[in-house]
Write a structure and sequence with these properties.
Rossmann fold, seven-stranded parallel β-sheet, globular, 13 strands, six-stranded parallel β-sheet, 2 domains, alpha/beta
């Protein structure tokens, strides 16, 4: 098979990590594989180091401006004329515009597959311009219809799309995100040092890893910390994003600067999870969050909002604790329960790790994706 992966951004993230793993697997299986990206960065560096050819499409941008779409399609046409593809696998919403070109290529056109990493503006938890949401949904629905197959990362997303007639039973499936068997977590003491926690070694550490933006709702995490200010706890937010300055100001205004700290780290943030006593996910909406898998793999007890695909990872009371009420008091209650039941929490964390290794491994992800390729190309 000749496979071209398309993705907009090159920064390290879940989608980029997945594309890299898929490309490396294809190369190892003897397929011709390359990655098309909208910029140079972490992904292109890692791909080149692994021997995976990369192509930078200068006009593949995180924008739906027609002034970028047409030049991108011209670049893509030139690349496909230079080296045709059997599979065109798209991993970000802007890459879906490739279906406009692909459907004009006649009998030699590649099979088009879209991986939906999250519903984005489609998700009922997204709030913003109704006009923007309507346009996004209409265009995305049309482009998904042009695909030969749509892969969702969780059953919740797929069922939502089916209910809205954005996809069909026949042309869609679920392939869960998956982690390698071994992850380069830091030793606990090293993680605590990076988290500025060595001076508070006896305190219970409540942490999260997230992009600092509306979706991840770090305000709820901070409000939870405020609720727990009388407890012997420390709170750490590891991540970067547009809300950094505002959230830092909020922490200061609440008088929590001695308890709550934002660790500005975008790359390999998961490595610090071993410094947490509990991982808390506060997102307003999600697809199938990598951070829950990473926390489980690190044997860190988990408290998560019960949004979208999260209950497909965490079984409440069995492999972690799910919170349905978006109130800081509810999260605080779950965090206290983890702290006050250490043996039970440790056992749940072990079961969560076992579930990740069995159901959400990188091997399952790779085999599931390539089996779809083979179904679309039985002679490939």
């Amino acid at each position: 098979m000749n496979i071209l992966y398309l993705i907009t951004r090159a920064e390290q993230g879940g989608a980029q990590t997945k594309v890299l793993a898929l490309a490396k697997h294809g190369l190892a299986q003897g397929h011709r594989v390359r990655i098309g990206i909208g910029e140079s960065g972490w992904l292109s560096d890692q791909a080149i180091a692994a021997g995976v050819p990369t192509v930078v499409f200068r006009h593949l941008k995180r924008t739906w401006s027609p002034f970028s779409i047409r030049p991108f399609l011209q670049e893509l046409r030139a690349e496909l004329e230079r080296q045709p593809a059997d599979i065109l696998h798209m991993h970000s919403s802007n890459t879906l515009f490739a279906t406009r070109l692909r459907n004009c290529m006649g009998n030699d056109r590649p099979k088009a597959i879209a991986t939906v990493c999250g519903l984005s503006l489609m998700h009922p938890g997204w709030t913003g311009s109704r006009i923007k949401k309507f346009v996004f949904n209409a265009i995305t629905k049309r482009m998904w219809a042009r695909c030969d197959h749509v892969i969702f990362v969780c059953e919740w997303d797929r069922q939502f799309a089916l209910s809205k007639k954005y996809a069909t039973e026949e042309n869609s499936s679920v392939v869960y995100n998956g982690l390698p068997a071994e992850m380069p977590y830091l030793a606990q003491r090293d993680a605590k040092e990076k988290l500025n926690l060595l001076s508070a070694d006896s305190d219970f550490v409540v942490g999260t890893v997230a992009r600092l933006d509306y979706q991840k709702d770090i305000d709820l995490f901070i409000d939870m910390a405020d609720t727990l200010r009388a407890e012997r706890m420390r709170f750490r937010v590891v991540g970067a994003g547009p809300d950094h300055e505002r959230l830092t100001k909020k922490i200061r205004q609440l008088g929590l600067s001695d308890r709550v700290e934002i660790i500005d780290r975008a790359r390999d943030a998961f490595r610090l999870m071993t410094g947490f006593d509990v991982f808390v996910l506060t997102s307003r909406y999600e697809g199938f969050p990598w951070t829950l898998l990473e926390a489980a793999q690190a044997r860190v007890p988990i408290v998560s909002m019960a949004v979208a695909g999260c209950p497909e990872i965490i079984t409440d009371g069995e492999t972690g604790r799910l919170v349905h009420d978006r109130a800081p008091q509810s999260l605080a209650k779950a965090v206290r329960a983890v702290r006050d039941n250490p043996e039970q929490s440790a056992a749940a964390a072990e079961r969560a790790r076992a579930a990740v290794r069995q159901k959400f491994s990188q091997t399952v992800l790779l085999n599931g994706t390539y089996s779809i390729y083979k179904q679309l190309l039985p002679d490939g």
